[in-house]
UniProtKB/TrEMBL annotation:
The keyword Transferase applies. Keywords: Kinase, Transferase. InterPro entries: ATPase_NBD, ROK. GO terms for molecular function: kinase activity. Belongs to the ROK (NagC/XylR) family. It holds the Pfam family ROK. It comes from Agromyces rhizosphaerae. This is Sugar kinase. The keyword Calcium does not apply. Transmembrane segments: none annotated.
Length: 309
């Protein structure tokens, strides 16, 4: 079989791992997918890693590198239109010293466009998930951190500075006046994966907390209930301000069914019990599908190359 003439790469760039897929436009699935730990050094080491990942994907799919039409990246930060990278990206290390857009484009020879990772996951939901039935929703992802992608009228909301949806900075959970909470936000200080684990025991992991809660450990159950409490507060705040109609949860923590039950209980106590809240049916595929959509849009409309305007 001959190689496709026009292919896209979608990259989900997280704080702990990178997932990527390569696909042709309008195809039902990816030709190949890869996952690797994120380069902890950031900067040029991250550019090198992403370039190698793209080349490896092309080899896996038997696609020549020069057949790439565009690359879409969803990253854990706020897209910086001037720098071509990410700002407010505490989980990505040093990404301010290089332009991911320019350097990756030079390394692989095709247009590169990027956006916030949760925004990109919301695009995946819009294309292949809840967006098939609904025009308005909020996608809330909880894992290494917390973030939101907001879709209203089938359009992704970016905000004046591309920072719409950075709900980790909502001023509750931790002390919002404490400068230590300003790096990643007061809410994120209490719902991020490391915060959930630390609430249970020093040195624990979020995965262990869920396992212990399933065994009936009261401390683990309490830690998850506290997690659900603050996630529900965030959802209630979003509902009061933008009325998204429904909320979809994703991420390694947000997609856990046992947490959903506790969140719904807290929402009921907060007077938001009628708001539909569900777990994403796409799972970890949503960010890669959204990044592929981002790449496809960039390939067909070169005015969108780089970062959102």
């Amino acid at each position: 079989m001959s190689a496709p003439d026009r292919v896209m790469v979608g990259i989900d760039l997280g704080g702990t791992k990178v997932r990527a897929g390569i696909a042709v436009p309008d195809a039902p699935g990816a030709l190949a997918e890869l996952e690797r730990p994120t380069a902890s050094e950031g900067g040029r080491a991250l550019v090198t890693q992403l370039a190698e990942l793209v080349r490896d994907l092309c080899r896996e799919a038997s696609v020549p590198l020069d057949h790439l039409a565009a690359i879409g990246i969803g990253g854990a930060g706020v897209p910086d239109a001037g720098q071509g990278g990410f700002d407010q990206a505490p989980n990505l290390g040093d990404v301010s010293s290089v332009s991911l857009v320019d350097e990756l484009r030079l390394a692989v020879g095709c247009p590169v466009v990027l956006d916030n990772d949760v925004n990109v996951a919301a695009l995946g939901e819009l294309a292949a998930g809840i967006g098939r039935e609904h025009d308005d929703f909020a996608f809330v992802s909880i894992g290494t951190g917390i973030g939101m992608g907001l879709v209203l009228g089938r359009e992704l909301v970016h905000g004046a500075g591309n920072a719409a949806g950075e709900i980790g900075y909502l001023p509750f959970g931790a002390d919002p006046l404490d400068p230590a909470a300003h790096r990643r936000g007061a809410l994120e200080e209490v719902v991020a994966g490391d915060a959930l684990a630390a609430r249970y025991a020093p040195g624990a992991t979020a995965r262990e907390v869920f396992a212990r809660a399933a065994d009936g450990d009261p401390r683990a159950v309490s830690a998850l209930d506290e997690e659900a409490r603050w996630i529900a507060h965030a959802i209630a705040a979003v509902d009061a301000i933008v009325d998204p109609g429904r909320v979809v949860l994703g991420g390694g923590i947000g997609s856990r069914p046992e947490l959903l039950e506790a969140i719904l209980g807290w929402l009921d106590r907060l007077g938001r019990g009628r708001l539909p809240v569900t777990i994403s049916a796409l799972g970890s595929a949503a960010p890669v599908l959204g990044a592929l959509r981002l790449a496809s849009d960039a390939a067909t409309d070169r005015t969108h190359e780089g970062v959102p305007a």
